Amino acid sequence: MFKRLPDAPAETVILDFDGRRIEARVGDTVAAAVLAAEPGHTRTTPVSGSARLPYCMMGVCFDCLMEIDGVPNRQACLVTVEDGMIVRRQIGIREAAE
Amino acid sequence: MSDDTDLIVIGAGPAGMAAAATASTLGLTVTVLDEQARCGGQIYRNISENADKNLHLLEILGEDYGRGHVLAKEFAASSVDYRPGTTVWQVGADGAVSISCDGKASSIRGRHVLIATGALERPVPIPGWTLPGVMSAGAAQTVLKGSAMIPEGRVVIAGSGPLLLLVAQQLAAAGAELTALLETTKPGAYLGAFGAAIGALKAPEYLRKGLDMRSRVRATGMPWHTGIRGLAAEGDGRLERVTFLDAGKRRSIDADVLLLHEGVVPHVQITRQLGCDHEWVEDQRFWRPVLDAWGGTSVDGISVAGDGGGIGGAGAAAVAGRLAALGIAHRIGIMSSGERDTRAQSWQAERSRHLAVRPLLDRLFRPNPEILAPRDDATVICRCEEVTAGQLREGVKLGATGPNQLKAYMRCGMGPCQGRLCGLTVAEVIAGARGKPVAEIGYYNIRPPIKPVTLGELAALDG
Description:
heterodimer; A: 98 residues; mainly beta; seven-stranded mixed β-sheet; 8 strands; B: alpha/beta; five-stranded parallel β-sheet; 22 strands
């Protein structure tokens, strides 16, 4: 859904997005990195199971909720990428993490 | 529990940065808590990185954005305890602030707390706004500032307000394929707002900027429709096209991305959670905390600076931060009222200059009634719990008189965003259905935690 400008920072890190290896740039949020990798959707809703992508990118809408390094319900637009991060789409309802 | 610091500032946008730097110069110990990884807030997001390393992007984003660098440098040079990546999930009236950072919860207490959490974009509930491919215009700008990325494919940008035009122009300058700009503002609004423009002459640079922005958008050659109505996003599982009424005729444009914007409103989650008094602003259709001249709320020891107290823009927010710092210095007893008032004079003058343009903008970009309370029953209002406008009206028929009852009936506002994206619309829909003013309808009761915190984090608190 998004593409990088030639101006984008050059230094890359690698994430695992639902088993797919995707390239991110240092300083990206997880949500931005995923939006650059044609994700289709990043979660499905607990109520109707409809597909969603991030909406606000500033921490208020909670449509970017994903599972990051085993922790569900993370606001991916507030998490900065780190090399080797494992990111999963959040499907339906998730129990609160311990 | 003793105080850890004189002042806790929540948010590192223009108001928070200016307040923290000023308060620290006045001799207060200051801790700044910010949810984002880098300072700047939304308006100056990533300013330090971009100013140092990405001059082309800085040029695309324009000189107003570049101005944030001066403030960010002042903030970086000040001796404040700055904690980025820190989420606030509860604020107590005693100055105790519960936070979460790197998966660990803790608490910090200040003699005074300044809330500088700014604004959020007004929700734009149209049919199909939950489809993948639809996001807010501010979100696209956030990705441009933060990651130097632009939306891919055919982009339609729709709604109203200064930010709409700014984002359209920035994305075009960055090379995005803008298929259409759909403005809900009617062409006649510009004539109607003429009277308000006279007051704005106090700060002619804002008028000049507005005209300049319109001509820059026009120069891109993107198709530009004004006074459109009945906006809808359509597609099977993702956005495929945008439809709208142009002079009463239904039109359709194929699109990969739709960016929505209908102005910004104060982000009142923390002041609501604290139980501060709020007032309804009738012409701007939002709630704001009731503040004194120094940003003080109805709760002693809690202040607000910047757009979280009413929309004034980045320039006004920074000055409000400095004025709040003076007020707090006086309140905690390190500055006389005489000195406070003397020091405040030039900043107060600067603030009224920044605010001189607001009546014009408020008049020109009045929120579209279709967006405030959608008439189409199938339109989703609460994105989290997927509650439609029709269900809300059904709840009113069943006897719900306000947002909190409706929440109990229909689950609206009960999802993770806690009403941030539906609270205003729910109140407008109830007001419309009951034929009452929104000021009488009220808002959701907001209870902590105002951000998700795990059970593990809670259990580890205070051993």
